[in-house]
Amino acid sequence: MGGGQYGVSPEVVGRIAGEIIEAHAAHVELAVVIGGGNIFRGVAGATAGMDRVNADYMGMLATMINALALQDGFEQAGLKTRVMSGLEMPKVAEPFIRRRAIRHLEKGRVVIFGAGTGNPYFTTDTAAALRAIEISADMVFKATKVDGIYDSDPKKNPDARRFDELGFDEVLARKLAVMDLTAFSLMRDNGMPLRVFSIEEPGNIVRAACGEPIGTLVH
Length: 219
Hints:
Number of strands: 10
Structural class: alpha/beta
Number of helices: 8
Number of domains: 2
Strand order of the largest sheet: 1-4-2-3
CATH superfamily of the largest domain: Acetylglutamate kinase-like
Distance between the termini: 31 Å
CATH class of the largest domain: Alpha Beta
Radius of gyration: 17 Å
CATH architecture of the largest domain: 3-Layer(aba) Sandwich
Order of helices and strands: HEHHEEHEHEEEEHHEHE
Low-confidence stretches: none
CATH topology of the largest domain: Carbamate kinase
């Protein structure tokens, strides 16, 4: 949503799409899992008194709006893209089918996974972990608002220390807030490494995709 309070910023979409296109040009096969917090968060709706299942489905639909916006950004730049949805909506996206997703990647397309896992009570983090494992990805990149994992909240503690590298068990022992426990457990149990970095610094997506040691590596 950029500097706005709500919705989709074409400028931000264009910047993110441009970085992913640059990484794709370096012969990296990329799949994107996208959230919907700029439009609606299921947990926030449930906290406000909505039925949790309904709120989560609304959140999944919000991710599809973002997925279509990102697809438009890609295709305006000439990159072939497919949106695959965890919820069936054939008018706007293909259903997620593992073998088809892998085939799209093999053909040089960027795949955008929307609608989370298609199930309530699961976060976008869990969807990212699950899809990465399903398509046998090499690594999960979590592009977020902070430039890695810290021993305390860097926004509240100016002396917070950033880690360059951590083990899964160390993250659990230190009770570090990396992602929700379901997603984290999936990645640990399946040996899926994770790199956490800031999406707000231009060029970081390309740096991560090309193997630069930015942010924090968990493995």
